[in-house]
Design a protein that fits this description.
Elements: H1 6-9, E1 16-21, E2 24-29, H2 40-55, E3 61-66, H3 78-83, H4 92-101, E4 107-111, E5 115-116, H5 118-121, E6 128-131, E7 136-138, H6 152-160, H7 162-170, E8 174-176, H8 177-183, E9 188-189, H9 195-207, H10 211-243, H11 247-261
Parallel strand pairs: 2-3, 3-4, 4-6, 5-7, 6-9
Antiparallel strand pairs: 1-2, 7-8
Helix pairs in contact: 2-4, 4-10, 6-7, 6-10
């Protein structure tokens, strides 16, 4: 497989690394000082990387990893103010959701720590998920005055049932990795020193398979829910955008920003 094109590799923003080798494009969140929060610049780069991986026959699978003690804290709060001025379907975060949810090749995620917000909901669009024991999936949306996104209101009720979904979204908003395995959100747990090897082993097995068979298998498995997924992502994103203008959300985001700045 060829390396990443210079037009992509040389244009990655701070906080994001990408490496192509052995049929796998690995994307690493690397902004530990900001808890790997995802900025709009990072979303734009993610879209470019995913588009490249989809089009390049040398890329047989996509992998997500992270540096530091957390997978990602989700959307960088600074982006909420930016997003209020952009149509929901033109936001880089929305384009990322579209690309990942329709990506035709296998996606593997290795959770080295907590996955918050979109870091948790993106896992519903990964084909294999490995996580270290003790990490947590966090769904903070309603506590911020927002709604869950990335098709999670569509997928989670099917996966874990309506009542568990509502308890998660309206209650603690937290799900341990151990619980996530029981619910089928995470495939298996791996000790921190074995996490990378667990993901690499799964990816090597995938790359050894017929790419045509793999592509068709994923397409058939996703086909029954494809329209529902697309509709949910769009509906959630439109409502999320609408709620960004509420006093409740502005107050919550302001409180978070003050907490981050230490004021």
């Amino acid at each position: 497989m060829t390396d990443l094109p210079a037009t992509i590799a040389d244009d990655l923003p701070e906080g994001l690394r990408a490496h192509a080798a052995d049929g796998v494009l690995t994307i690493t969140f690397d902004r530990a000082e900001k808890r790997n929060a995802i900025t709009y610049a990072m979303y734009r780069a993610l879209v470019r990387l995913i588009d490249h991986a989809a089009a390049d026959d040398g890329v047989r699978a996509l992998s997500f990893a992270a540096a530091g003690p957390i997978f990602t804290a989700g959307h960088d709060v600074s982006g909420f103010a930016q997003g209020a001025e952009i149509a929901f379907d033109e936001k880089p975060s929305y384009l990322f959701m579209q690309r990942l949810s329709t990506f035709p090749k296998p996606v593997v995620a290795a959770l080295n720590g907590d996955a918050v917000g979109i870091g948790a909901t993106m896992l519903l669009h990964c084909d294999l998920v490995y996580a270290v024991p003790g990490c947590t999936l966090v769904f903070p949306f309603t506590k911020m005055g927002l709604i869950p996104e990335f098709g999670s209101t569509f997928h989670l009720p099917q996966l874990i049932g309506h009542r568990r979904t509502m308890a998660l979204f309206l209650g603690s908003g937290r799900c341990s990795a151990e619980q996530a395995v029981q619910w089928g959100i995470v495939n298996e747990l791996a000790a921190p020193d074995r996490l990378a090897a667990a993901a690499a082993g799964a990816l090597a097995d995938i790359v050894a398979l017929s790419p045509e068979a793999v592509r068709h298998t994923k397409a058939l498995a996703k086909a029954p829910h494809a329209d529902g997924t697309a509709a949910a992502i769009a509906t959630e994103a439109a409502l999320f955008h609408e709620l960004l203008g509420s006093d409740f959300v502005r107050n919550r985001i302001g409180a978070i920003q003050r907490s981050i700045s230490g004021r």
